[in-house]
Amino acid sequence: MKKLRLGIIGLGAQGGAYAGFITEGKVPNMEIGAICDIDPEKKKLAAEKYPDIPFYDDYIALIESGDVDAIVTCVPHYLHPEMGINALKRDVHALLEKPAGVYTKQVKELNDFAATKPELTFGIMFNQRANELYQKVKSVIDNGEIGGIRRTNWIITTWWRPQGYYDQSAWRATWEGEGGGVLVNQAPHQLDLLQWIAGMPKKVYSNVKYGYQRDIAVEDEVTALLDYGNGATGVFVTATHDIMGTDRFEILGDKGKIVVDDSKKVTIKRLKVPEAEMSAKMDMQDVMKIFMGTGAADIYDEEVLEFENVWGAQHTDVLKNFAANVLDGTPLLAPGSDGIQGVALANAIHLSSWLDKEVELPVDEDLYFAELNKKIEEEKTALVQK
Amino acid sequence: MKKLRLGIIGLGAQGGAYAGFITEGKVPNMEIGAICDIDPEKKKLAAEKYPDIPFYDDYIALIESGDVDAIVTCVPHYLHPEMGINALKRDVHALLEKPAGVYTKQVKELNDFAATKPELTFGIMFNQRANELYQKVKSVIDNGEIGGIRRTNWIITTWWRPQGYYDQSAWRATWEGEGGGVLVNQAPHQLDLLQWIAGMPKKVYSNVKYGYQRDIAVEDEVTALLDYGNGATGVFVTATHDIMGTDRFEILGDKGKIVVDDSKKVTIKRLKVPEAEMSAKMDMQDVMKIFMGTGAADIYDEEVLEFENVWGAQHTDVLKNFAANVLDGTPLLAPGSDGIQGVALANAIHLSSWLDKEVELPVDEDLYFAELNKKIEEEKTALVQK
To answer: Does A155 touch chain B (CB under 8 A)?
Structure first.
């Protein structure tokens, strides 16, 4: 079997994990072509663990080496678009780590360039799209099984991080280093899943807390109110200070409801008759019968599904799918161009809180970029004053 | 035992239920002193069911009859404050049905007048305050068992009402007849419980849907984002179009979390060490131990309580408590003056959606009244054009 030669840029936690998966044979259609890192410690590590694999301390050299067919960008968020463009420009396939970038202006450049290279594979590590649970939820919605969406509500506060996490490196949880907090680092998967499953909202209003429970410049808590423009609404809550974290995703539709608990259990209620029809036909006596008696069970069927998650399995699925797309044209689960949606959502949530008003999507990308740069400047001034 | 003689104003569903409870002896310290209704059908009904009880078709006559020590106002919302004032003015105790009124300007007049009559009992039918489940939740918060509140989140969409419910009477779900929809009619209990347990927010932003899934002028869906002014936030969602209604109330505190499911089950997690202290002391290795291993159980104790609700039991508890306050000074569970808080919250949620911006509490009561009257005028014009 022909194997895709992957260049791993960045041998940190994520890059190291991918190198491990590939070495252990968990991605049968992939091999490590080369590794790149600017940190001398990582060079030593690579020499010990992967002595036969070429190592570069310049990612352009890796791309141009001829050792790799594709790259994966396990580096700080800001660098993802630039590295993606530089790979595609040299006819090397690109798999981006999430998020696709920090601001849409940057991600749009990447997408525009990628569109000029349709013969190359451009993917993004939205490993949660490989999660069978969310695939099931998406198929139930796409098949119209619960009808048009009326309301979404996701509380995802299972991203607990102690202060020590933020203090590990100077770039962490800074505007200059990461371009945001929980929205950019921890929650991009849920932002992507939310839009993948329920579509993009038209308007966003947010209440974002910057350095609320942690000594950081960026956000550690987010409450966002979404308006889908067709009457449907949504709520998205995330935080890094809830050690008893909640993960509860509810979608109400015209013909049913889905509740996902802890990304493990899905409860699907399918109404036998669409709600609008029940509303039109029933009087209060019928209502009393349903709610006081045993009638409730008769109005919908309930399906409860439990899924077992193995950490890493979804990452290897995305790696396999990416390689298969290059090798035999298997459709991509997470096309790279999709990455802009989650970034657009995160940008809108930030911008609403900065402007203290509801914003329309897509937000003005130049305005966002200017406001982000203001935060970076403020942060530098604050550091100098410390 | 001495009994309080209650004058029931309005013999509709609610007034009829109270008459039934008292007649059946469920409120041992109360008897029906008189009944009032302007509907001749209700007069006939009273003559059949309560032939020995004086009947009035003018509530002032009932108050002045000498037949009653107190009244309860089972009449349209707008009339509650006026009736309360007229009773207290004549030295008759007053128990108001919820909501205390439709707009705070009106409720404030009532409260101001009631304050001049401290010797009289002035209560409100917040029967959910008699619910042991919510009493438990309040005591856990008040005792500081989960520390300061960081976040509240209540989805209460169990208020399903079909179109036929709204079509029963011309006044239903109109600005002139009720002054609002789900916020004024169905959700006042939760608005009161929310502020009773977690305090009043300082600012509110809302997305309110008027006539979204029903042919009504007022709101059938509400999403409100609360800001408590000290960093804490909240979300309140309610609707009348979800036949598979959700009732889930979550409170995150510095030292624990409470989750109430279906107003029946309470899960209380109490951290052994406050979250801020865990954040200060733990590194990511400790975190991995907790989340990957079996350590999670060690960081908190979990208590799960189930409560059985019997419809009506809480109403009789409030009636008993009200009578006991008059007869022997037992402290009131729901003082009438508390009623303004839920009205203030509902007004703020409406006003934010009308002005399309976040509003501070208390909202400008004259502005709210003026905006409400605009809605009433628009509604009249729309009716004429039909």
So the answer is: yes
Averaged over successive runs of 10 residues, the pLDDT of chain B (386 residues) comes to 93 95 97 98 97 98 98 96 98 97 96 98 96 96 98 97 92 95 96 98 98 98 98 98 97 98 97 96 79 69 91 90 97 97 98 97 96 95 77
Distance CA B36, CA B86 (A): 15
Chain-chain contact of A160 with B269 (C-beta, under 8 angstroms): no
> Chain A 317-356, CB below 8 Å of chain B: which residues?
356
The whole-angstrom separation of Cα B179 and Cα B346 is 10
Supply the DSSP string of A137-161, one letter for each residue: HHHHHHTTTT-SEEEEEEEE-----
Query: Over the stretch A203-262, which tens digit does the pLDDT of each residue have?
Result: 999 999 999 999 999 999 999 999 999 999 999 999 999 999 999 999 999 999 999 999
Between CA A195 and CA A204, with CA A198 as vertex, the angle to 5 degrees is 65
Q: Which residues contact B22 (CB under 8 A, 6 or more apart)?
A: B6, B30, B31, B32, B319
pLDDT digits (tens, 9 = 90+) for A234-248: 999 999 999 999 999
- Exposed, middle or buried by CB within 10 Å (0-12, 13-18, 19+), for B329? exposed
Q: Mutate which of B159, B166, B182, B244 to disrupt the A interface (most A C-beta within 10 Å)?
A: B244
List the single residue in A227, A243, A280 with the smallest CB-CB distance to B163: A280
Q: Is A384 on the interface with B (CB under 8 A)?
A: no
- Alpha carbon B71 to chain centroid distance? 19
Residue type, B276: A
Cα A40 from Cα A26, distance rounded (Å): 28
Predicted TM-score (pTM) of this structure? 0.95
The complex scores an ipTM of: 0.94
Long-range contacts formed by A18-25: CB under 8 A, 24+ apart:
A18/A72, A18/A74, A18/A315, A18/A319, A19/A49, A19/A50, A21/A312, A21/A315, A21/A316, A21/A319, A22/A319, A23/A50
Q: Give the pair of three-digit tokens for residue B203.
A: 């600012």
How far is Cα A31 from Cα A21, in angstroms, rounded to an integer? 10
Dihedral angle computed from the Cα positions of residues B132, B136, B139 and B141, in that order, rounded to the nearest 10 degrees: -140
